[in-house]
Amino acid sequence: MTPGTLYIVSTPIGNLEDITLRALRILKEADVIAAEDTRHTQKLLSKYDIHTPLTSYHDHNKEEKGPVLVSRLLEGKNVALVSDAGTPGISDPGYFLINLAVDQQIPVVPIPGATAAIAALSVSGLPTDSFVFEGFLPGKHQARLKRLELLKPETRTLVLYEAPHRIHQALEDMLSVLGDRKAVVMRELTKIHEQALRGTLSSIREQLRTGSDKGEFTLVVHGKTDEPAQQDIDIAEHLKNLMLHRGMTKKEAIAAATEELGLPKKEIYKESLKL
Q1: Do 68 and 13 belong together in one domain?
Q2: How far is the CA of 24 from the CAs of 30, 111, 163, 259, in angstroms?
Q3: pLDDT (tens digit per residue) in 211-240
């Protein structure tokens, strides 16, 4: 028997109009739609009068539901995989099902569309010729710091996701480890309250302190450069973060900042007198 096809269908990240004609056709023609949250996906299907049966597939049931979906595919049924928003397989459990299908030589076909990372990068104003997508940073503080240390030498533009309850701490840690780089933080992309916060990590942190921290966040951060001055680095703020968040003495912070920022020690020391 010829197996069916697993379609990886991109859905809107906010505005329900951001879906392709091909995606709508595949959702209508599929035998079943595997959705991260069936209630959420039902809103999209109702808007476009689509009545394809829904089944749940998410991070908590992927090991149980994945083989079930593969069995249906091997029976010749077509399955459309969707996430709550954007492209399945990008920072979600879609990769698990995709790998099961590939192992069984089941055709896997992408239906391209919205992705928050690319949408944010496209309007960031930061270099787009070369970038690296990091997904979500670790939730725990020390693990996040270690991950940022690994990213610190990266010269490509960094694109990351962050949850609202961790955005403030994530910005603090990025400022502490990466320095005060140019960045853009997008909140509620394509939704009614879409917002772009532009500047440096420190200025964006201040903007968020007085604004809303609700909604999902996409961060675009300038890669490391040999020209620190172009990143509008607040040396005193960097020293303060080294002492507060990495437990350094002022002397240790001055030495670390001299190495991290690539500036003369005399200039770093002068700024330390402001603290």
Answers
A1: yes
A2: 10, 10, 29, 53
A3: 666 778 999 999 998 754 444 467 887 788
